[in-house]
Structure formats: C-alpha cells, structure tokens
Amino acid sequence: MIQLKNIYRPIEKDLKEVDNFIRFSFEKSENKSVVNMGGFLLESTGKRMRPALAILSAKAASLNHRSPVATHQLVKIASAVELIHMASLLHDDVIDHSGIRHNRPTVNSKWGRDVAITLGDYLYSVAFEIISESGAPDIIRCISCATKTMCEGELIQVSERDNLDLLKERYIVIVKKKTASLFAASCQTGALISNSPRAFYGALKEYGLNFGIAFQIVDDYLDLTGEEKNLGKKPGQDIGVGEMTLPILNLLESAPENKRKDLKALLAAKRDKETLKEIRQVLFNSESAFKTKQAVSSYITFAQEKLNILPSSAYKESLISLADFIMEQGFNGSSHS
Q1: Which domains occur in the chain, in start order?
Q2: How far is CA 144 from the centre of its chain?
Q3: pLDDT digits over 141-181, tens only?
C-alpha cells in the first residue's frame, strides 16, 4: 500500500513550514475569535495535497537550473493555496449542510452558517494578501483565475442539482472548474516560482488538471461506497443534496430502461441512508464501478504522461506516486480529503 508520508518525505520540512506559516497567519490577528477559529481548523488538517503539489512541482521543475527555488516564497504561496482550499471547504460545508468533516464538527455546525461564511471570506482575503506580496503578476494571475473558475464551478454544480439527465460532459466541466482548476494552478505556480522552461508550465498545469479530475471522481465514488469512520464525514451527501456524480451517471447509463426509471425515482426521493443503501447494492452489481475506475485510471495516466518532460528526481517520482495514491485510495476501500 502506498503511504502518503513516504510520498511527502522529500518535502517533509517544507510542509511543516507551510503549517507553521498558516498558523502564524491566524495568530497575528488581533481578534481572539479569529485566532481560536484558526486553531480549531488547524487541529484537523487534511492531506495538504495542494501545497504539496506546488512544492513538488517547483522542485521537480527547477533541477535544470543553477539557481535554487526561493523556499520562503514557495512556502508562502503554497500556504496561500491551502488557505484558498480551506476557505472553499468552509463554504462547501454551508452549501451542502455538512455537520462533520475529518471526524470533527464543521465550523457551520459549531458556530453557525454566518460565522462559517464570514470565516471563509476572511481566509480568501488572507490568501490573496499573501499572494500579492510575491510581486509576481504571473503567479497572482494564475491563482486568482483558478479561484474565480473554482467559484464558477460551484455555482454551476448548485444550479445543476436534481438534474437527473445531467450529461457526463457537463459533469466533467463542473469537476474541471470546481476542483481541478486549483490543483492545476498549484502545479503551474510551482513551475512559475522555479523559473523553469515555459514548456514545464503547461506540462505541470495539465498534470494538475488531470490529477484533480481523478481526485474528484474518486471523492464522488467514495461518497457512495465509503464508511463514515474512513471518510471523516457522512457518506451519501451528494445524493442528499441532489448532485449527480460520475458513478451515478454511469449507473443510470448502464441500467435497463425499466430499472433506470426506478433509479431516478429513488434518487429523486433523497431518503438519505435508505437511498444510499439501495444505491450501493445496485452499484456493486453493475458496470458502474468498473467504468468509474476506468475513467479514474485514464485521467491518472494522462497526468503521469505529462511528467515525462521533467528530469528524473525524487520530486518527480513523488508526483507520479501521488497520482497512484489517488487511484489506490478510491478502489482499495480507503478515503482521501
């Protein structure tokens, strides 16, 4: 089994500095409530994939150059990317009415929706203040465009709720915008910081984009098949809010006409636990799981092929392994976040 700590070993020190910088960003506030909420958020960190991708990309792309990557600037930008992700999760939890994340109460369940929304806005502002201090227009443009795209993806996803006839192509558009855009920007920003050849920018951006699509498909699959203790949140949330994901779309596509009508009626009912139990039973006896795994595998392969342009290094190997890790998490019964 692939261990994330082994993948992160070449940048372990850098990721610790990211955590320290994020903590400092909260603690320098003169408002005690902000400091306390920041501490609460930092008690249950995710897997730090976006800052890890930024750091790995920067170091993997800089090996052909004599000048080393400016570590302090890299840590600050990687921290800003993670703050943007944290902000988006706060807003997502409000939109999805989520009460648990990482096996702990969400901010909206602990302090209310108003606090969660405002805290998310605050994190966005802190992130862009940090990014603006870089004085690099390309980096500012890259991350700001990704954030706008990410928010647009969220809007489209919410507007498509309860659309049982959603096309797969439309689903992929949503995923590219809402999730993959920030992964792509993380990788591209790393290349920009490293002052690497322009060809590396595009390659790493495409790696991040395909990685992000695979990541989200796996997340959607686990929402149907995972257990709360492993996911760190209640499964079946997508069904509960009426969001059609690739496993569900594959399930509807492969079902006979008479069964498809029953499935649509089941999904429209949104009976949460009962619906999830029935959907799982149908899912495991259909081609949907195989088709979903096949799609993830394709995006993982696309992502890894984009790395061929990079010179050999421990950082490049970590990028390759991180993509394999996503695949393993989705189809070996584990979870990611």
Answers
A1: 4-331 (1.10.600.10)
A2: 17
A3: 999 999 999 999 999 999 999 999 999 999 999 999 999 99
